[in-house]
């Protein structure tokens, strides 16, 4: 199977290395010093168990890669619209495009049951280029559980004990394409189960980002530090409760309540020392995913008439800080 990792940075680098090590034909679309280092010296991923070193084909010109069986997009959300034309040369007649980006996905209502079906989210796809030019029937939904950081060009630190890429068709059907992508991950050390309701999984993951990503980005603290801080904990809990209300009003059933979720963070965990990706972006002054992770949830809340005072305050501060840094 030919798999392209599009936007092979921290998460995508980990995925590419593990797929390549397992013998999958992997192409990485990357850029800048990270790409130059991979082309010159190969890709290195330090996992908890070992050091993977591979030399997959890596380029910033997708025309050099040719049609793929699947594209796994591990770009940050703000980079998606500008990348859509670059995906065209990678598309064969049946190529699926897996969007493995944190937050509310731009395709959220594609395949959704009921009157909201096929509604577009202009915050996440302002000109509609993703929806129109891809086109939408290519989309497979996805959620990432894998903590990673680029620690030097060409070198990724993977801190997770379990690496998971949850997959699901937006309409919940079990298609040959989603099963084939899942199977390609066999033996890679990345679990890739297929879900019938990928939107519930999107929300469960979103509950792991909605409070922590902006609060860590604002404070520079780790997730357990915030969860254990008497002044910050109630704000995080408030955000989780507000997010949970929004998800439920949208018809989702989540795995647990906000308080349990917050307490689980304080249990000794394998990714406690991980810098959430939004904190990495604030520190490195890279475009932030505030729209997908925070403001899209606020949009839903406003439409549904749900008050989100904690989320609103943190969102306003995070947007203000991001503007001051020139990244929003
Ligand atoms: N890092 C983590 O631990 C986790 C991240 N996530 C989510 O996964 C997604 C990816 O995050 P992460 O891996 O951290 O992000 P990274 O920024 O490390 O990776 C994205 C890469 O894509 C590159 N890129 C951007 N645009 C293009 C383009 N047009 N062509 C080629 N390359 C391009 C970026 O380069 P450049 O830097 O030059 O822009 C960067 O190297 C995000 O949605 C994030 O929220 C989810 C769970 C954990
Ligand atoms: C922090 C983590 C790993 C999960 O909450 C994440 O998704 C991120 O870094 O954005």
From TrEMBL:
Pathway: Cofactor biosynthesis; (R)-pantothenate biosynthesis; (R)-pantoate from 3-methyl-2-oxobutanoate: step 2/2
GO molecular function list: 2-dehydropantoate 2-reductase activity
Gene3D superfamilies reported for this sequence: N-(1-d-carboxylethyl)-l-norvaline Dehydrogenase, domain 2, NAD(P)-binding Rossmann-like Domain
Gene Ontology biological process terms from the UniProt entry: pantothenate biosynthetic process
Cellular component GO terms, alphabetical: cytoplasm
Entry superkingdom: Bacteria
Boundaries of every Ketopantoate reductase C-terminal domain copy: 197-318
Swiss-Prot/TrEMBL catalytic activity: (R)-pantoate + NADP(+) = 2-dehydropantoate + NADPH + H(+)
Pfam families listed in its UniProt record: ApbA, ApbA_C
Residue intervals of the Ketopantoate reductase N-terminal domain: 3-104
EC number: 1.1.1.169
Key words of the record: NADP, Oxidoreductase, Pantothenate biosynthesis
Protein family per UniProt: Belongs to the ketopantoate reductase family.
Function: Catalyzes the NADPH-dependent reduction of ketopantoate into pantoic acid.
Protein's name according to its UniProt entry: 2-dehydropantoate 2-reductase
Organism whose genome encodes this protein: Stella humosa
């Amino acid at each position: 199977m030919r798999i392209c990792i599009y936007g092979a940075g921290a998460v995508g680098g980990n995925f590419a290395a593990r797929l390549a090590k397992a013998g999958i034909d992997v192409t990485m679309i990357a850029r800048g010093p990270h790409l130059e280092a991979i082309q010159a010296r190969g890709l290195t991923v330090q996992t908890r168990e070992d050091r993977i070193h591979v030399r997959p084909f890596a380029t910033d010109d997708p025309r050099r890669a040719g049609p793929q069986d699947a594209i796994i997009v591990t770009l940050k959300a703000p980079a998606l619209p500008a990348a859509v034309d670059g995906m065209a040369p990678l598309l064969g007649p049946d190529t699926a495009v897996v969007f493995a980006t944190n937050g509310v996905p731009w395709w959220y209502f594609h395949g959704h049951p009921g009157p909201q079906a096929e509604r577009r989210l202009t915050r996440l796809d302002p000109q509609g280029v993703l929806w129109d030019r891809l086109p939408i029937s290519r989309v497979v939904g996805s959620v990432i559980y894998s903590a990673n950081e680029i620690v030097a060009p060409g070198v990724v630190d993977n801190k997770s004990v379990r690496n998971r890429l949850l997959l699901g068709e937006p309409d919940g059907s079990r298609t040959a394409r989603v099963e084939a992508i899942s199977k390609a991950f066999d033996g890679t050390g990345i679990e890739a189960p297929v879900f019938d309701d990928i939107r519930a999984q999107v929300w469960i993951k979103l509950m792991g980002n909605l409070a922590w990503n902006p609060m860590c980005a604002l404070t520079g603290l780790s997730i357990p530090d915030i969860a254990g801080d008497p002044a910050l904990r109630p704000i995080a809990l408030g955000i989780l409760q507000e997010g949970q209300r929004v998800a439920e009003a949208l018809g989702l059933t989540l795995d647990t309540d906000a308080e349990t979720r917050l307490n689980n963070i304080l249990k000794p965990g394998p990714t406690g020392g991980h810098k959430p990706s939004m904190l990495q972006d604030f520190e490195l002054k890279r475009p932030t995913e505030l729209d997908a992770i925070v403001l899209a949830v606020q949009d839903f809340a406003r439409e549904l008439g749900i008050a989100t005072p904690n989320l609103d305050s943190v969102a306003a501060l995070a947007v203000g800080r991001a503007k001051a840094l020139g990244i929003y």
